[in-house]
Every structure is written in C-alpha cells, then in structure tokens.
Automatic annotation (TrEMBL):
Coiled coil: none annotated. Residues 7-168 form the NadR/Ttd14 AAA domain. This is NadR/Ttd14 AAA domain-containing protein. Gene3D superfamilies: P-loop containing nucleotide triphosphate hydrolases. It comes from Roseibium album. InterPro entries: NadR/Ttd14_AAA_dom, P-loop_NTPase.
Length: 179
C-alpha cells in the first residue's frame, strides 16, 4: 500500500507532533491521532496489560494493528492525510522489544509518502504524564531508532526546526505542495 497523500509526522516524544496534527485538522486536513496514546488510554481504562511500561511487546503489537487499521481506513481521495506517528513507529517499538525487524513488518512496502516529517528532541516541551512515563533520555533514544529505521526503509526525512507551530505547519504544507 502506498499513498503519496499519507503524510507521516514522527520523531521524539513531546516534540510537538500532536499539536501539529491538531492544527492541521483545524485547517481542514484529514488527520489520524497517535496509536500509542489511544492504546494507553484504552489500557488504563481496561485491564492495563498492553501498556508500554507493563508489556512493551504487547503494546507495540497493538500499535501495529491499530496503525494498519488507520491506514486501511484513511481515504487518499480526501487529499493530504496527516498521521501522528504510525506503522513505522510501532514497528520500531516492536523491534526494540525483541520482535521482528521493522523492515520485515512492513514487508517491503512504503505505506506513507516518501517524505516524512520528523520532530527532534525538544527538552522544553517534554513532560511526563499518566500516559507518558518514560524520561527525556528514553525519548531521545526512540528518536534515534526511528531515524535509523527511516533511513533503512528509504524514506526522505525532513527534520522540523524548533520554531512556532504556525511556522512548522507552513513548512509542512509548503513541502507537501498544499500552500
């Protein structure tokens, strides 16, 4: 499955991805929220077995399933569809937890547009909460794993600078040909 209208935003936890997604949604673009946050919410409300701090592998497997479902449900005829994290992030998490390699999970397919927008570590934005229990150094490690996977999978990375949300949104839309 490949859609050049499926745009992935990935990178470091608390780098501003969700804020960008919300802003793009307010501008009328189709958006898909982060699978991990949805899973954590569901797990906290339920039995809590597939939480990243309880069973990372089960969490990552659920994230893969949710990201695949998100991709199937997304409609490229809507124009650009922006994903807050997604299948690549979930595959990297599963690989880190001792599961199969991200490349194997993706099966040689590129589910998102070739250009991926990456948010770097941004300590001033980083905050722990009930759903995000890892520390900043773990977020930085995750960022590096995702970047290596993007390189390995042949994606073109565009790292977004640490600037105002409106400037980041303008950069994304300009580079996607929507401005």
């Amino acid at each position: 499955m490949l859609s050049d209208s499926f745009v992935l935003l990935t990178g470091c936890s608390c780098g501003g991805k969700s804020t960008l997604i919300r802003t793009l949604g307010k501008l009328g673009f189709a958006t898909v929220p982060e699978p991990g946050r949805r899973i954590v919410s569901e797990e906290i409300a339920g039995d809590g077995k597939a939480l990243p701090w309880v069973d990372t592998r089960a969490f990552a497997q659920r994230a893969i399933e949710m990201a695949q479902s998100d991709l199937k449900s997304a409609d490229p005829s809507e124009g650009l569809v922006f994903f807050d994290r997604g299948l690549i992030d979930a595959a990297v998490a599963l690989e880190c937890a001792g599961g199969q390699a991200a490349r194997e999970i993706l099966g040689g397919k590129r589910p998102y547009a070739k250009k991926v927008f990456v948010v770097p570590p941004w300590r001033e934005l980083f905050a722990r909460d009930e759903e995000r229990r890892h520390d900043f150094s773990m977020a930085v490690q995750e960022y590096h794993r995702i970047n290596r996977a993007l390189d390995d999978l042949g994606y073109t990375k565009r790292e977004l600078p640490r600037v105002r949300v409106s400037e980041r949104v303008d950069m994304i839309l300009h580079e996607c040909g929507a401005l």
